[in-house]
TrEMBL record:
Membrane topology summary: Multi-pass membrane protein
Lineage: Eukaryota, Metazoa, Ecdysozoa, Arthropoda, Hexapoda
Segments passing through the bilayer: 20-39, 72-93, 100-120, 126-146, 158-177
Major localization class: mitochondrion
UniProt protein name: ATP synthase subunit a
Native organism: Rhagoletis cornivora
Length: 225
């Protein structure tokens, strides 16, 4: 039972199938009609308004001294994660954001770039960030250790948070789907309502986790400036 349950997260052992499964990360972009990019529509305007709102919010988090194009990477990160989260809700489509292979690949390089940039260009600020203002002198060595550990585990927490939330929701959907054939017809309707409600909840989780990942990455970037 456990093997079948977690098999929905297995990208397959075949090299050919493995490449096709991971291609789902970008496969949906190929299905977008060219007219979406060339001709304005309601969906295009709605998506552009969302991106503009995110740009303004990320710009505020980065500070007034940041470059106007500095939010592009975080808006793109939000779009990529949101797209893959929603793609995983469709049947028979591999959920790439449920694997640390993808989430850690997104989080770790960003964190490394922020740390390298901060320690090279703002060394004094990075040292000062290890000791919060107003810390007693006797507690400073402990605060340095605590702040260093909390800083080092940031990419791991970013990656695990996204993957764990995607796995949890998909496991619940799989469990409800597997119990369907073994129950009476009277409970099937209740089970169907529960699956629809859970699917709506998973859609909300997909949006929230994409937003959380992008916002936390923006905050980590703002700390090194």
């Amino acid at each position: 039972m456990m093997t079948n349950l977690f098999s929905v997260f297995d990208p397959s052992s075949s090299i050919f199938n493995l490449s096709l499964n991971w291609m789902s990360t970008f496969l949906g972009l190929l299905m977008i009609p060219p007219t979406y990019w060339l001709m304005p529509s309601r969906y295009n305007m709605f998506w552009n308004s969302i991106l503009l709102t995110l740009h303004k919010e990320f710009k505020t988090l980065l500070g007034p001294s940041s470059h106007s194009g500095s939010t592009f990477i975080f808006v793109s990160l939000f779009s990529l994660i949101l797209f893959n989260n929603f793609m995983g809700l469709f049947p028979y489509i591999f959920t790439s954001t449920s694997h640390l292979t993808l989430t850690l690949t997104l989080a770790l390089p960003l964190w490394l770039c922020f740390m390298i940039y901060g320690w090279i260009n703002n060394t004094q600020h990075m040292f000062a960030h290890l000791v919060p203002q107003g810390t007693p002198a006797i507690l400073m060595p402990f605060m340095v250790c605590i702040e260093t550990i909390s800083n080092v585990i940031r990419p791991g927490t970013l990656a695990v948070r996204l993957a764990a939330n995607m796995i949890a929701g998909h496991l619940l959907l799989t469990l409800l789907g597997n119990t369907g054939p073994s129950i009476s017809y009277m409970i099937v309707s209740l089970l169907l309502i529960g699956q629809i409600a859970l699917l709506i909840l998973e859609s909300a989780v997909a949006i929230i986790q994409s937003y959380v990942f992008a916002v936390l990455s923006t905050l980590y970037s703002s700390e090194v400036n």
